[in-house]
């Protein structure tokens, strides 16, 4: 399945590096990545492919959350269909 | 790829604006559970609910995980028990409520609705037994919800039933006096009750429904309010457009969840009910939307017009977003469950008379209203009659969920906690409706032409 990972928080060095190395460890493939500053917050969204994921979805979400806590940012992973259904007809 | 702004809009709606799936409700037909032996019927009911809904909570949790959408409640609605139990020789249906409660507990759902009877034209023996059993059934169970339909646009109002329901509401409250009369909060008296409503306490699985259906109720007053803050001072055309667009997005999420849940459970998808259902949480209030439109405090003049626009725009936005919109779709105004409504009542800006006017233009009716424990049953019946008349004449659903809180009076407050919130006791008319209610009989169905 394809999912969107969103990272929001205060900007700092190494957010992308840390998140993407965690993803590569878990065999999550990054398909697209975009980063911007929105309302003064660092905002990164990634489109990822979870076909080769080696853990459960639940564990991956937990790992991302604890990585987020460590970096002081919020990290979420959601199936891309929620965005597609809301924003595309 | 979906762009960052769109992703952030969705995340903001879910997190800051409290958008949620209020409920995934599985409707289960119990028609085939009828049996001349009540005990055998109840065993069939228990087995059927467990076999159909055994996975409901698990599936809902998987959907929550996959999309990161909060699904607040998982619920079950069943065929009105007055129909299922009619074949039995039982003279009291409390045991049926208890078995529903047990099954609900076993599968882990929050509520089970359908301890119901449809008596808009007349009452069968079984309907009468069910109605008599309501107070004890609600007082002795935790998750069971009950509803009675006492009128329709086509049949008129059954005033004998209206009279009885005033007494039943009062008795239900008194039996749970130590818990603020909470049993009455699980009882809805309807006119034009929908058969596919996923919201409690009025959910039941109508006779026109299939064997098993998934109905999804979605809510997001916070998201609508947030969208309106961006168009401050603009004309109502812009307000209506903004609400429609937000309602569309919200309903699409409900549609996605309904589709996913029905596929995972192998059950037909019924309807998506797009209702702005407030919760006591800050930022999850319908009153605040009306205030955002320019009403100083909900209940001030202009409130009814603001609510009419909101209710209509929500439906228009939702209809295109889902293949089947149904249930109660619209805006709810339950007093105890809406922080803005509670505040408006406390400020004396919102009275029961204004709430009644508001119900003429929005979904449902006088909902979660606490009144003095000393209120006469005939007064409650008369409130039910007024509300049902609005529904009957305007061809819409109306309902009354009113709690005469034992031992409390105007100026007091009752606290239920959770989704039910807290309610200031509201003032009712000082004058009697005794002789009006004592008449009984039926109020004839209204003319459908000469609309004035």
From TrEMBL, chain A:
A Pfam family cross-referenced in the UniProt record is ACT_6
Superkingdom in the source lineage: Bacteria
According to the entry, every stretch annotated as the ACT domain falls at: 4-78
SUPFAM superfamilies xref list:
ACT-like
Spell out the NCBIfam families in the cross-references.
Answer: PRK00194.1 (NF001220)
Sequence similarity: Belongs to the UPF0237 family.
Write down what this protein is called: UPF0237 protein SAMN02983006_01671
Q: Which organism is it from?
A: Halanaerobium salsuginis
Top-level taxonomy: Bacteria, Bacillati, Bacillota, Clostridia, Halanaerobiales
Automatic annotation (TrEMBL), chain B:
Q: Which residues form the signal peptide?
A: none
Task: Enumerate the InterPro entries for this protein.
Answer: UPF0210
Q: Give the source's domain of life in one word.
A: Bacteria
- What family, per the record? Belongs to the UPF0210 family.
Give the protein's recorded name.
Answer: UPF0210 protein SAMN02983006_01670
Its quaternary organisation is: Homodimer.
Q: From which organism does this entry originate?
A: Halanaerobium salsuginis
Coiled-coil region: none
A Pfam family per the record: DUF711
């Amino acid at each position: 399945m394809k999912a969107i990972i969103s990272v929001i928080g205060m900007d700092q060095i190494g957010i992308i590096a840390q998140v993407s190395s965690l993803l590569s460890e878990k065999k999550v493939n990054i398909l697209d990545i975009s980063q911007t500053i929105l309302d003064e917050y660092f905002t990164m969204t990634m489109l990822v492919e979870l076909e080769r994921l080696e853990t459960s979805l639940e564990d991956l979400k937990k790992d991302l959350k604890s990585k987020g806590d460590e970096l002081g940012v919020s990290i979420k992973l959601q199936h891309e269909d929620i965005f597609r259904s809301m924003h595309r007809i | 790829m979906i762009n960052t702004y769109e992703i952030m809009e969705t995340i903001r709606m879910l997190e800051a604006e409290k958008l949620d799936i209020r409920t995934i409700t599985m409707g289960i037909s119990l028609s085939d559970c009828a049996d001349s032996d009540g005990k055998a019927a109840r065993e069939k009911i228990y087995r059927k609910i467990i076999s159909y809904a055994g996975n409901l909570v698990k599936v809902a949790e998987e959907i929550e995980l996959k999309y990161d959408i909060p699904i607040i409640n998982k619920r079950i609605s069943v065929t009105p028990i007055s129909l299922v139990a009619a074949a039995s020789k039982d003279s009291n249906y409390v045991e049926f409520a208890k078995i529903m409660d047990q099954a609900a507990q076993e599968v882990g759902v929050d509520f089970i609705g359908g301890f119901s009877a449809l008596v808009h034209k007349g009452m069968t023996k079984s309907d009468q037994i069910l109605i008599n059993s309501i107070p004890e059934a609600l007082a002795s169970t935790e998750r069971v919800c009950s509803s009675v339909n006492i009128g329709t646009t086509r049949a008129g109002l059954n005033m004998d039933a209206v009279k009885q329901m005033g007494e039943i509401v009062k008795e239900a409250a008194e039996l749970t006096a130590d818990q603020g009369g909470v049993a009455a909060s699980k009882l809805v008296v309807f006119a034009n009750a929908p058969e596919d409503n996923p919201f409690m306490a009025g959910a039941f699985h109508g006779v026109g429904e299939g064997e098993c259906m998934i109905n999804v109720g979605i809510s997001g007053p916070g998201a609508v309010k947030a969208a309106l803050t961006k168009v401050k001072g603009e004309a109502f055309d812009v307000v209506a457009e903004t609400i429609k667009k937000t309602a569309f997005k919200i309903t699409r999420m409900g549609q996605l969840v309904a589709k996913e849940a029905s596929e995972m459970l192998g059950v037909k998808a019924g309807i998506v009910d797009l209702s702005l259902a407030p919760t006591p949480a800050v930022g999850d209030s319908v009153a605040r939307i009306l205030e955002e439109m320019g009403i100083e405090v909900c209940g001030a003049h202009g409130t009814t017009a603001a609510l009419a626009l909101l209710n209509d725009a929500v439906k228009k936005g939702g209809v295109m977003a889902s293949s089947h919109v149904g249930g109660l779709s619209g805006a709810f105004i339950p007093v105890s469950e809406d922080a803005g409504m509670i505040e408006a009542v406390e400020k004396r800006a919102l009275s029961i008379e204004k709430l009644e006017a508001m119900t003429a233009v929005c979904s449902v009716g006088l909902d979660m209203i606490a009144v003095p424990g000393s209120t006469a049953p005939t007064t409650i019946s008369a409130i039910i009659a007024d509300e049902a008349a609005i529904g009957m004449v305007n061809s819409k659903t109306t309902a009354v969920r009113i709690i005469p809180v034992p031992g409390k009076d105007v100026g007091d407050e009752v606290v239920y906690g959770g989704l039910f919130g807290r309610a200031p006791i509201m003032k009712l008319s000082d004058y009697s409706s005794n002789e009006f209610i004592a008449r009984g009989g039926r109020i004839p169905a209204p003319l459908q032409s000469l609309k004035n």
